[in-house]
Amino acid sequence: MTLRLVPGDLSLAALDALEVEAVAAFVGEERPLQGLSGLLDWRLCGAISRAILDGTFVPGRGEAMLLPSGGRLPAPRVFCFGLPGEDAPAREAAIRRACDVVARAGARSLALALPAGAAGSAVARAFVEAAVQAGFASQVLLGDGRALARDLAAAVREAKVDAQVVESGLRPEGRGAASLPGRGSVVR
Hints:
Shape: globular
Distance between the termini: 37 Å
Helix content: 25-40%
Number of domains: 1
Number of helices: 6
Strand order of the largest sheet: 3-4-2-5-6-1-7
CATH class: Alpha Beta
Largest sheet: 7 strands, mixed
């Protein structure tokens, strides 16, 4: 089966447009939370921050945490993976672990952003290899969509895996007026 890789820009609108079974965020030592973990924390009304503050989730130890989205995101499950180190090998290991854990949890499609500061072909290749090995059907990578598309295409060529990088509909401007909630819906 060909893995479908969809690069997209990181925004609240992109989160709202996701059609995946799970979202995974890498959480480092930065406070307040930044990037995807910050947007997810916002959507989850501070659930990630509260777990860090009360010691339930300690990102610096490389811990993992699973949260239900409670309908605040299209994906029902949110995985958080702590980053125990800032170096490239630690980030690559975290990416491999995340793909393995989410696949073992039964998700066939996943959205994530590469760990902060992790850019380039080596990290993209580690991600592509881990995603193919995990058996995902589809993955959405959020960040700088154009740079991700370039890095992912190079990684697929280098790794010689059965994967394709496809154009996404995840743009920073959102889905337009047709996506407004219906009457009686809660707007977040």
